[in-house]
Amino acid sequence: MPEENRNMMIAIVAVVAVIVIGIVIFIIAGNNANPNNSVTPPPASSAITNESKTFNLTAQNGSGENGTVTLTENGNTTKVTITLTNPVTTAEPAHIHAGSCPTPGAVKYPLTNVINGGSVTNINAKFSDLKALGALAVNVHKSAEQSDIYVSCGDLAF
Questions:
Q1: How far is CA 63 from the centre of its chain?
Q2: Average pLDDT over the chain, rounded to whole?
Q3: Which residues contact 122 (CB under 8 A, 6 or more apart)?
Q4: Which of 25, 46, 57, 107 pairs as cysteine with 154 (C-beta 3.0–4.6 A)?
Q5: Considering only CA atoms, which of 156, 93, 154, 152 is closest in space to residue 119?
Q6: What's the rounded Cα separation, in Å, for the pair 67 and 82?
Q7: How far apart are CA 46 and CA 123, in angstroms?
Q8: In this structure, what DSSP letter does residue 158 have?
Q9: Span 54-65, mean pLDDT?
Q10: How high is the pLDDT of residue 7?
Q11: Model confidence band, residue 18 (pLDDT cutoffs 50, 70, 90)
């Protein structure tokens, strides 16, 4: 075998040996990192609960806009979904207020305007944060210009 071919063969064998040794080390290290091959659950503080609660919204001021508000806890946030019957095309402001219906108090969380009977908003609060605030209600206003007229309201009873 010529010298050049022998050197090439030695180089190839050396590269293959390094690759094989690397794979063996990788496999051994992987098995030692998790010897039972079990799945480790995420820490409890980052667990996503996806717990949902649905509350009724009652029409006010002859609007005919009854519906529901569904709160879905997702880790440290809550998705607020409003669905109204007899919808209008005008943007209707919505909020989570302190207090209870029919005349809730100060706004605690602004929500996305209800348009065509629907609204979805993510707020930075867990269910426990909302419970800690005491009595809460979701209400929907006729429009930004007529915010003193409520078209729908519902108490959040945790």
A1: 31
A2: 84
A3: 74, 77, 78, 79, 80
A4: 57
A5: 93
A6: 7
A7: 17
A8: -
A9: 96
A10: 66
A11: low
CA distances, 25 to each of 12, 21, 32, 56, 143 (Å): 20, 6, 11, 60, 67
As a whole number of angstroms, the distance between CA 37 and CA 27 comes to: 12
Residue 150, exposed/middle/buried by CB under 10 A (0-12, 13-18, 19+)? buried
Most distant CA pair in the chain: distance in Å?
Answer: 100
The dihedral over CA atoms of 145, 65, 80, 113, expressed in degrees to the nearest 10, equals -20
Q: What is the CATH number of domain 45-156?
A: 2.60.40.200
Q: What is the pLDDT of residue 29?
A: 58
Rounded Cα distance between 116 and 152, Å, is 14
Can you give the length of the chain in residues? 158
How far is residue 42's CA from residue 23's CA, in Å, rounded to a whole number?
29
- Got the DSSP string for 78-135? EEEEEEESS--SS-EEEEEEES-TTS--SEEEEEEEEBTTEEEEEES--HHHHHHT-S
